[in-house]
Amino acid sequence: MENIPILHLDQFLLSGGNGVYINDLKTHLLDHHNKISHPHKHNFYLNVLFTHGEGIHEIDFNEFEVKPGSFFVMAPGQVHHWELSDDVKGFVFLHSKEFFMLRDSEFELDEFPFFYSKQNTPEIVLDGEAFSSVHDLCHNLLQEYKASHEYKALKIHSLITLVYIALTRAYSPTNHKVKRNSHYDSTIRTLEHLVEISYKDEKGPSYYADQLNITLKHLNRICNHVLGTSVSQVITARVLLEAKRLLMFRDLSIAEVANQLGYSDYSYFSRLFKKHTTQTPQQFRKGYIQ
Q: What are the HTH araC/xylS-type domain coordinates in residue numbering (predicted)?
């Protein structure tokens, strides 16, 4: 059972569209308030630049401060919601993977650091020249989106690419834990993929070491070097993220949540959850949905 609403790109388009949507943030929030006011996922890439206002933006249960210059990039499947001041302004653009890939089949979106690994933060704080550059690109994106010029989609794709390049250059090294040009980081990314498809059934770290054809000792060494954590902690973090997503709504009992995550022993799941979050599943659910 899927509890968290998944928004689709065509819900934001006036007509069929071509895989992209661009708007000023204030209008977007007013026009789509009913769809985006509660925690939700997307099946598309979401990008938001804040130019005015303040608030809190929560992405996969991590809170980020919203302020002028805050830029957030989100890949499909991430859960988010926000609490924003009434004077918030900025830009928002959404696009499908197909929109990007059809016009550049040789460059994958996950080559950009913020999409490369789940360990890399979705927040980029811009100031000075970096803010001015990205602001102007977003303004040009909106103007092009509203117009009816030849090669419109091609120009929009080019402008989005330039935004992503500017964000990559502004990306803080502290945010960029997993880099593309490191052999160790490549192993971490493969581990992430394996955990994503197997965490409900395979929670033992030895399974992932076997899949990677390396010893568990070496895999733990890599995880500690890149992430400062162990293989077991990587697996547990993914389990807990999904647990929190499932607990957000009352449709499932705690026992059903545990079962969906591969735990037949409900009490063991509850102890695990409390050990890592300091709350029982019931306490988390009560606090989150109040």
A: 189-287
